[in-house]
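Quick one: structure for this chain?
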Amino acid sequence: MPPDSQRSHRPNDAYESSEPFVRLALPGDEDALGRLDRATWSTLHSVTPRARPPYTPFFETSDPRDHLVAATGDGRVVGYVKLARPTPLASNAHVRQIQGLAVSDEARGMGVGRLLIRAAVAEARRRGALRLSLRVLGHNAPARRLYESEGFVVEGIQPREFLLDGEFVDDVLMGREL
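Got it. Here's what it folds into:
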C-alpha cells in the first residue's frame, strides 16, 4: 500500500472508472495542471492577467505536494486545489489556506469541486492544521455557495479590492475550524 502521503481518496484502487478521485499531485502532472489552469482562467476567480506563451511552469513557485489533483480512472486530470501555508510564520503554522481551485469544463456538475474541498479539509487536518481559510472574489457566487455548504463562513470583506474588466470587485475572506 502506498504511504499516507501518496494514498488516493479513491473508492477502489483496482476499479478503473471515469469517476473522479483525489490524490496528491506529482511532478509529472505539471503540464496537465498548466493546461487546466489556462483553460479555466476567468475574471470570475482570477485577479491575474490571462497567461500568454511562453507559459511559466505550473510548479515554478509551489511544490507539487501543495496540490491535490482530481483525476479520472483513465488518468485524465479534471481538477485541482492548492493547499498551502498562508505565511512562513511559526505563529500561524496551524493554518492552511486554499490558494487555488480549478475544475475542467468536462467535469463541471459532477461534484469535483466539492470532492476537492473535502479532500483539502482532510489533508489540512492530516497535516496538523486547526483552521482552513481562503479568499474568493465577491462576484463568484457559485464558489461562495460551495464553500458555505462545506462549512466556511465569511470572516471579512475587502470592498472594491480589485478592478476586473472595468468593475470593482470585493475580496472575501472565508474560513472554518477543523
